[in-house]
Amino acid sequence: MKRFTLALLVLVVVAGASLLVGVGHLSWSALVSPTPDERAVQVLVVSRIPRLLAVLLVGTSLGVAGLIMQMLARNRFVEPATAGTAESASLGMLAATALAPQLPVLAKMGIAALFALAGTALFLLILQRIPLRSVLVVPLVGIVLGGIIDSVTTFFAHRMELLQSVNAWTTGDFSTVLRGRYELLWVTLGLTCLAYVAADRFTVAGMGESFTTNLGLRYRRIVVLGLVIVSMVTAMVVVTVGMIPFLGLIVPNVVSLVMGDNARRSIPWVALGGAGFVLVCDLLGRVVRFPYEIPGATLAGILGSLLFLHLLLRRNARVG
Amino acid sequence: MIEAKNVTKRYGQTVVVDDVTLQLPVGGITSIIGPNGAGKSTLLSMMSRVLPMSSGTVRVDGLDVTTTPGDVLARRLAILRQDNPLTARLTVRELVTFGRYPHSKGRPTVKDREHVEQAIRHMGLDALAERFLDELSGGQRQRAFVAMVLCQDTDYVLLDEPLNGLDLKHAVSMMKHLRHAADALQKSVVVVLHDINFASCYSNHLIAMRDGKVAFQGRPADIMRPEVLRAVYELDISIQRIDGDFIATHYR
Ligand SMILES: Nc1ncnc2c1ncn2[C@@H]1O[C@H](COP(=O)(O)OP(=O)(O)OP(=O)(O)O)[C@@H](O)[C@H]1O
Ligand SMILES: [Mg+2]
């Protein structure tokens, strides 16, 4: 508990500092003085604070979504970006944009979530059918499935000249976040809280179907609940800022190494860690080539793949 | 009472449990013995509704296991499977606490915690309670799962090879504990055992399975006979009476 408070404090400080980083110059003194600089306040309220909130919400919810995916697939190497979930959500968005462009964003998001749900369910069904000779087969199946869905998306997007939109959905970038364009993400906070409420169920489901049945719980229901949470979170992230790769993989794995898989204990840490990871990626993206920006997703890809390789080698060392 | 009626399990064309009708006695220890592949685990799993049957019915205290709500059954019957999942990194105490889930629904009370500590103590896991499952030896892990099942505190306790991987001392102490649960706490314990001498010394009732059928059943004195064991195991086994127990010798 103490460690968690400390970690939360660090996150708050870094988050506060991140508000001051950007092309337009800002300083606390200009903001908190008795006669605050109008323009500075404007920048803060319209751009910086929404951006920070989007970063935190995306990090928290994608981290927890990754954790749930890992429990449902009973495999450490899956997350929404390696299970066809994100690709399906993009396809859903494309379908909605092409076939019903007049729909409000919320409805399009709903369609994307349905596609994500179907894609992830398909992934889990495939897993039930194939013999799993190695733990690595599971993410490979997901990546192949994602690749197939992605190529369908690209094909149609190319025809309809929507490649640029698709790119925005698949590459998470917070530079476009403004007040009025990210608020959908607040729903993910609700979903994260729902995941926390159902934490024990997910832990039990992570021990397998008969374990779950023995304890009097309905395995199917837990899987459906998990799928709904994961799909909705992914769809919302894809629609608002775009997918952040590796986040749902790295953060839950690191937390699991340190404190195990009891979701009641680990969800708060995964949420915090996810927020921290995206915050760092977004901050780095803003300062590395100042005044230009590198998308957060690109940095997450680089940092994430390095960390992931490290985890993979470490795990193998433990097993072999 | 657990009653199985015409219970059958088929995988494609192969029948692995063949029309078994069986009443398990209330109270005491019932041991299921038999060669590999006889269908012991399959039958136990179907009786505890973790494996669907191809046909037949199983009732626990008159409740049909396929239609009774899962949480009602989970407070009456607990099952330890032969192979336990090792996917989630839980500590021993966390795992055992999940045994209370049917009663506490995730909010363990003081009484639930007492059950947990008691189960941990009975299985000799005090020193290991904070260890993760993947940091235990095979036998220690087995004891942790048994502790969880005992913690569920159900009238019927079904254990598939609980002695799997246990050393002599822990095997004896586990059987003594099951005996205590049956005698003092009036539990009905059903165990699958490969060590027929443990089965003989600790059980009230023996069920011998072969080729998906119940081949023989009865008191240890009825089953621990060379001709019966020969029919079950295809092995010449001689029986000695030692201190009132029937002991099989089959090492040579
Ligand atoms: N999923 C399955 N598909 C096909 N056959 C199966 C399956 N599971 C079990 N079997 C077969 O069913 C038979 C009974 O298996 P079961 O696990 O019940 O045996 P058992 O008596 O518990 O044996 P052991 O002493 O080795 O544990 C075996 O011949 C096994 O090969
Ligand atoms: Mg078996």
What's the SSE pattern of chain A?
Answer: HHHHHHHHHHHHHH
CATH-level-4 superfamily name of chain A: ABC transporter involved in vitamin B12 uptake, BtuC
Helix percentage range of chain B: 25-40%
SS-based class of chain B = alpha/beta
**How many separate helices of chain B?**
10
- Assembly category: heterodimer
Report the end-to-end length of chain B measured between terminal Cα atoms. Answer: 40 Å
Mean pLDDT of chain B: 93
| Total of domains of chain A | 1
- End-to-end separation of chain A in angstroms reads 34 Å
CATH homologous superfamily descriptor of the domain at 2-86 and 154-232 in chain B? P-loop containing nucleotide triphosphate hydrolases
Q: Could you tell me which ligands this complex binds, including any ions or cofactors?
A: adenosine-5'-triphosphate, magnesium ion
Query: What radius of gyration of chain B results from the CA coordinates?
Result: 18 Å
Taking the sheet with the most strands of chain B, its summary is:
6 strands, mixed
Strand content of chain B: 25-35%
Shape call of chain B: globular
Net shape of chain A: globular
Strand order of the largest sheet of chain B: 6-7-8-3-9-10
Question: How would you sum up this structure, described in words?
Answer:
The complex is a heterodimer of chains A (320) and B (252). With 320 residues, chain A is mainly α. Chain A has a single domain (49-313), classed as Orthogonal Bundle (ABC transporter involved in vitamin B12 uptake, BtuC). Chain A is 75% helix and 0% strand. Chain A has 14 helices and no strands. In chain A, helix 12 (247-259) packs across helix 13 and helix 12 (247-259) packs across helix 14. The two termini of chain A are 34 Å apart. Chain B is α/β, with parallel strands linked by helices and 252 residues long. Chain B has a domain at 2-86 and 154-232: Rossmann fold, CATH 3.40.50.300. Chain B is built from ten helices and twelve strands. In chain B, the strands form three sheets. Chain B has a six-stranded mixed beta sheet, sandwiched between helices. In chain B, strand 1 and strand 2 (14-24) form a beta hairpin. In chain B, helix 3 crosses helix 5 (110-122) and helix 5 (110-122) packs antiparallel against helix 6. Chain B is globular and about 50 Å long. The termini of chain B are far apart. The model of chain B has no long low-confidence stretch (mean pLDDT 93). The interface between A and B is medium-sized, with 22 and 29 residues. The site of magnesium ion has 4 residues of chain B, from helix 1.
